[in-house]
Amino acid sequence: MVIPFQDNRLLAEVLPVLGLDERYAASHLRLGQGNGLPSRLAVNELACGAVAAAALAGLAVRGGDHVVVTPRQVAVAMRGDQVMALDGRPPAVWAPESGFFRAADGWVRTQGNYPHHARPLLTALGLPEGSERRDIATAISERTAQDVEDTVFAAGGVAVRVRDEAEWRAGEQGVAVDPVPLLAVDQLRDAEPVAVPFRPKVLDLTRVVAGPIATQTLGYLGADVLRVDTPNVPEIPWQHVMTGSEKRSTLLDLNVPADRATFEELLGEADVLVTGYRPGALTAYGLDADSLAERHPNVVHVSLTAWGPTGPWAQRRGFDSIVQAATGIALRESEDGQTPGALPGQVLDHATGYLLAAGALAALRRRSLDGGSWRVSAHLARTAHWLLDAAPDAEDGGPVDPPDDYLTVARGSAGLVFMPKPAFAIGERDTFRKAGNAWGVDEPKWADYHLDPSTTGMIPVIRPNA
């Protein structure tokens, strides 16, 4: 059964931001019933609404009859780390340095999946590299939670004290996040209109989950996506593949003149730049929104942060699990009211990623119709605030044990990938065209596509509200 799109509060909230209206959504969205992400919060509504926003924004650019959003498929897609396998091996999702640990007066959540995060964490705790989880637990148990947070942050690591919602919302960063839009699509300056090309070129400067989900979605909707990483910080192989469908991966060090020149050539032809760095981190490279609008007024700038653009935590590193712990979500998901829990998937990451993709597509459409330089932004903490403010899902549902209909198998340069299908279907198409490549194996150049625009890829922009 299809439910009215108005029943999804998140989608109703972001439609005006995307330049779409209720008539367009009602005519082109098939939103199914069900809940595969059971939670004490409105996780299903957040997840399905964000996916539907990206799907509709994509349809408004590429054309077509309808998109299909099925809650159970959304649930499987957002639990990709729980169901995927690479060459028959399920991923080790969490490193020993990552997780909840009991401190002397409460709980902390740490993130040490990357070696460059694990090392400062261990250093801050006075532990040698290679320490086991029990050693970390012992060291943390002897300190206050606030001391662990402060010491690890000062050392360059990632850890937060678990807070309840009231404390977080009353604090400086919670106050700074509240007025920030859930999704912002802003015109920065005037510029001549530029048509959306057959395959928009997207430069992807993101890592982990939210940003790569955004660019994977753009690739699924027909864009030519090139992910660019520094060779100095290796990626986790399974994580890269999980969010790498429909794009290619190359390595450039922007501090090396030759690589910087290559990147500038790519940027000169790009339609969209997606970044996932802390505010101001890319200013030195001229890749902040204002500098980009000055040098390349036709490039849509899409940015993701963990904690928002302002406030005392704006420069801190953050991840989905860390934001859950700091904002009060972990305690809202607690079974006993004291031991922190977690959402049924990395839903803050995924939902924010789909919102960013929706915003990027909306900006491309506005660029073609009205001209202008455009900036798109979303933030994990702001997505967390929406989730905390919304009434819980009306339908309880239950976890999805995914049958084959929800999954796909594909071979890429990284190996044989067993993974979820896309979170939404475009008409009758519900599979990726290609699996993710291994990290950094592609040349730093745009693809040379020769595809039939009548069957795939982008087509001229339509005016969905006309």
Please tell me about this protein's structure:
By secondary structure, the chain is an alpha/beta fold. It contains 18 helices and 16 strands. The strands form four sheets. A seven-stranded mixed beta sheet has the order 7-13-12-11-8-9-10, sandwiched between helices. The longest helix is centred in the last third of the chain and has 24 residues, at 347-370. The model is unreliable at 450-466 (pLDDT under 50).
User: Number of helical segments?
Assistant: 18
Number of distinct beta strands: 16
Give Rg in angstroms. Answer: 21 Å
SS-derived structural category: alpha/beta
Largest sheet: 7 strands, mixed
Give the % helix: 25-40%
Unreliable stretches (pLDDT < 50, length at least 5) are 450-466
Gross morphology is globular
End-to-end distance, in Å? 28 Å
Indicate the proportion of strand residues.
Answer: 15-25%
Mean pLDDT: 92
User: What topology, given as strand order, has the largest sheet?
Assistant: 7-13-12-11-8-9-10
TL;DR?
By secondary structure, this protein is α/β, with parallel strands linked by helices. The chain is built from 18 helices and 16 strands. It has helices at 9-14, 22-28, 43-62, 71-78, 80-83, 115-124, 133-141, 145-154, 165-170, 172-177, 210-220, 237-242, 257-269, 289-295, 320-327, 329-332, 347-370, 380-389; strands at residues 29-31, 67-69, 85-86, 99-102, 107-110, 159-161, 184-189, 201-205, 224-229, 247-251, 272-275, 300-305, 373-379, 407-412, 415-420, 425-426.
Task: Map the helices and strands.
Elements (H helix, E strand, L loop, with lengths): L8 H6 L7 H7 E3 L11 H20 L4 E3 L1 H8 L1 H4 L1 E2 L12 E4 L4 E4 L4 H10 L8 H9 L3 H10 L4 E3 L3 H6 L1 H6 L6 E6 L11 E5 L4 H11 L3 E6 L7 H6 L4 E5 L5 H13 L2 E4 L13 H7 L4 E6 L14 H8 L1 H4 L14 H24 L2 E7 H10 L17 E6 L2 E6 L4 E2 L40
Parallel strand pairs: 1-2, 8-9, 8-11, 9-10, 11-12, 12-13
Antiparallel strand pairs: 2-16, 3-15, 4-5, 5-6, 7-13, 14-15
